[in-house]
Amino acid sequence: MTIKEAQEAVDSWIKEYGVRYFSELTNMACLTEEVGELARIMARRYGDQSFKEGESHDPSEEMADILWVLICLANQTGVDLTEALQKSFEKKTMRDKNRHKNNPKLKA
Q1: Which of 1, 25, 47, 72 has its CA 20 to 30 A from that of 35?
Q2: Record's SUPFAM superfamilies (predicted)?
């Protein structure tokens, strides 16, 4: 599935099952909540905290939820995520093409 196809699929799902998009502010709060849920899993899986009984250990569901809400926000605000990601690659390449290669902290 391409990013464009994902944006179209989310929009179709919202129109068929979701009644309407939540407001942009509600979706921003939902995005923040989902990122927090991913952070909880990462802190327990890779950090110093331990899992509580019954807690999910799998970050994939939270990552998918983050992507879903981000796509909703993009659709609501008229952002073409394919185009935005391409521009981000260009920006990062111009800015960082030598920066990371020359960073001694990143040497193996």
Answers
A1: 1
A2: all-alpha NTP pyrophosphatases (SSF101386)
Closest-CA residue to 27 (of 86, 82, 67, 58): 67
Determine the Cα–Cα distance for residues 60 and 83; give it in Å rounded to an integer.
25
Homologous superfamily assigned to 3-79: MazG-like (1.10.287.1080)
Which residue in the block uniquely carries the two structure tokens 């008229």? 78
The reply to whether the predicted model has a pTM over 0.70 is yes
Q: How many residues does the chain have?
A: 108
User: For the segment 17-46, what is each residue's pLDDT rounded down to a tens digit?
Assistant: 999 999 999 999 999 999 999 999 999 999
d(CA 8, CA 3): 9
Beta carbons of 47 and 97 less than 8 angstroms apart? no
Task: Map out the domains of the chain as residue ranges.
Answer: 3-79
Q: Please state whether 56 falls in left (phi above 0), alpha (psi between -120 and 50) or beta.
A: beta
Taking the CA atoms of residue 37, residue 56, residue 13 and residue 69 in that order, the dihedral angle to the nearest 10 degrees is 10
